[in-house]
Amino acid sequence: MTSLRPDTSPRHGPPSLPHVGAAAWWALISVMAAAFVLELCLGSVLIPPRTIWAVLSGREGVPDAVREIVLLYRLPRAFTAMLGGAALGMAGLKMQTLFRNPLADPFVLGISSGAGLGVALVVFAAWGFGFLSVLEKTGILGNTALITAAAMGSATVLCVIMAIARRVENTVTLLIVGLMFGYIGSALVNVLLQFALEHQMQSYIAWTFGSFGGVTWRQLGVFSPVILAGLALAWVLVKPLNALLLGEGYARSMGVNVRRTRTGIILGASILSGTVTATCGPIGFLGIAVPHLCRLVCRTSDHRILVPAVILTGAALALLADMLAQAPGTRVVLPLNSVTSLIGAPVVIGVILRGRRTMETGT
Amino acid sequence: MKETCTVEYRKSTGRDQVPPLETHRLTVGYLPSRRERRPVAEGIDVVLREGELVCLLGPNGAGKSTLIRTLAGMLKPLEGEVRLSGDRLSTLSAREVARRMSLVLTDRPAVGLMPVATLVSLGRHPYTGRTGRLTRKDEEAVWKAMADVGIEDLAHRAFGELSDGERQKAMIARALAQEPSVLILDEATAYLDLPRRVELMELLLDLARAGGRAVLLSTHDLDLALRCAHRLWLLPHGGPLHTGIPEDLVLQGTFAEVFAGSGARFDAASGAFTVPCTFRETVALKADGIVGMWTYRALERAGYRVVAEGGARLCVEAVQTVGVASWRIHDGNRRKITVGSLESLLTLLETADRGELGAVGDNGAKDQPTRARDFEAALLKSVRS
Question: Chain A contact for B339, CB < 8 A?
């Protein structure tokens, strides 16, 4: 990965600006591709790559059970993990740049708390109206109800935040307002939990564990275009994001419409994180760690490099974490949230301690 | 008085073209709420010309930053207008403003990992397309900006690894990459040590003169501003803004007036600020050159009124033999005592003043022969009195 460092070799004529070599990009893409293949192969049963290929190419002679596992479970799961990881990394990167705070993550504006509140309300209200049992019997429908509730919760928080962002000039104020929303959301959820029945509490907590699994192709048909659109918005914002690294004063002096850029950043990041949270639950760690890892490995804060690097690294890390969460070869499934944090946090600590000097000025 | 100054200047340089930046009846300040209006400085009419380095000076809280921020378009003027090359600032797009004017602010950018060349290339923002991709022309402008500031060697270093002086240069290079006709710097010398500040001022002078730009610098560095700036803008508490070349402003007393009441007193003779104190005794000084200047300073700091030779009973004479300075003290009785350092001189005067015997020997000069002589002198003096 050291080849990702900026190319500083001397040249003739006016020297070119630092950039990352093509070999490094191919290395990153191969890592992601390898993780994708592994995700398809590993799980409660091991399926060799040759069989996977046979299933994907539609060849005969593969047992129906295996075909079903690959096509109905593992493939959508792998796509969800890839897109979800990329989305969380990107949302984290945007938030860290906007708030110029290395501790910012995709949920810093209270998006996940909104989703959590939505889910909690559905779980309990549904019981109140007496149709939760119906939802629970038809598993997939129940899943859709949760996704819809979470999406509505995040969207509500997003709307309120956007309304406030229009009035508030100062970005730090916005950050504090977002944090407060987070507290209000969790507080309300706790109140609801206080009155919850045991199985309701369990279904809520299961949601908070996070999982890339259980997403159907039909849901993926909504999930992927939204995520891809959110990622595309990030590409458009690369230039103003770079200017914002210097602070809002400088950005404005370089001709950036700070207010419009801020709206774009918040909207894009919130759609990404809100969609992932609604579909997969509140998945921590990836959003805060992926941008840091990319910065340290690429040794730059330049978004022209960071945006693609974060997308590829986020996708690869999410795939690897999901793979570990399924504890290959066993029937155990670990909470995804715990895996991302348990594996990821020590890695980030190690990387940061080694590169302490360059971390001084954070983002 | 100021008006005639401006007119004469315009005539003498014979420049009739539109200045890069000018203001008309500009009032700067804040709008804390919808009803309240808090003006900081009013009726400002100033012109910034090509090739000119202007320093904006004023006591803390007079509104330097407010004025700078208004000129830079970060604050809306309460009244009046700012014009960039003849066009009203408020009618120009952000991109167009960025092509005409660039800033160096006091904000410290948090881009520790960014290579200097990339940082400087951010200055091309108002010229690049939607993706920010740099063309050949952009890259050349970036390297020229770094060359003008003299930081080509740092191009691939991370911004976070630079010293304060180097960072400031990198930020100036970034501003130059915007190819502005007006460069505005807010307190750019604040974090730097004296040699670095002098270097920076020379750089700015060069950028103004050779580059045909107008450079405006707000600073607290009065001494450097007096020496380097082509023109000063002096902003006292409550306005109005005074402009003129540094020497005129000193001779007219405007300079002293603007900084009056801020604790220190501007001394037109030395061109520096002195801390006022009550003098305890008068000492005549016979010395010249560097030694004379520093002896004067030492005596003045210790609270003596220093006059020319013959003006006082006690006379200090600096003697230089083979490049080594020593000081001789005469009193009315034609006694002479010689000391080897200014520290001993001050201690001797102090001791003699208080008539305390032996104090010199305890905490005075360190070198043995001088110490003995000092002791003798104090002894003589106290016996005499």
Answer: no
Choosing among A253, A304, A357, A358, which should be mutated to test the B contact, i.e. which has the most B CBs within 10 A?
Answer: A253
B83: closest CA of chain A, how far (Å) = 16
Range of the domain at A225: 19-361
d(CA A208, CA A218): 23
How many domains in chain A? 1
Tens-level pLDDT at each residue, chain B (385 residues): 444 444 444 444 444 578 899 999 888 888 877 778 888 888 889 999 999 999 999 888 788 888 999 998 888 899 899 999 889 988 998 899 999 999 998 877 777 778 899 899 999 999 988 877 888 899 999 999 999 988 989 988 888 888 888 898 999 999 999 999 999 999 888 778 888 888 889 999 988 988 789 999 998 888 888 888 999 999 888 778 889 998 888 888 888 888 876 566 777 776 777 666 666 678 888 887 788 888 888 888 777 888 877 777 778 888 887 778 888 887 766 667 888 888 888 888 777 766 543 334 444 444 444 544 555 566 555 545 4
Q: CATH number of the domain that A32 lies in?
A: 1.10.3470.10
pTM passes above 0.80:
no
Region of B303 please: left (phi>0), alpha (psi -120 to 50) or beta.
left
Does some domain include residue A6? no
- A358 CB within 8 Å of a chain B CB: yes
- Interface-testing mutation among B68, B70, B125, B151, with chain A (most A C-beta atoms within 10 A): B125
Q: Within an 8 Å CB–CB cutoff, is residue A345 touching chain B?
A: no
Cβ–Cβ < 8 Å for B299, B316:
yes
Helix then strand count (H, E) for chain B reads: 14, 18
The first and second tokens of residue A102, run together, are: 């290395």
Q: Is A307 among the domain residues? A: yes
The ipTM is 0.74
Is there a domain that residue A9 lies in? no
Q: Do A8 and B156 touch (CB under 8 A)?
A: yes
Distance CA B170, CA B173 (A): 5
- Asked whether residue A4 is assigned to any structural domain, the reply reads no
Q: Which of B101, B132, B178 minimises the CB distance to A239?
A: B132
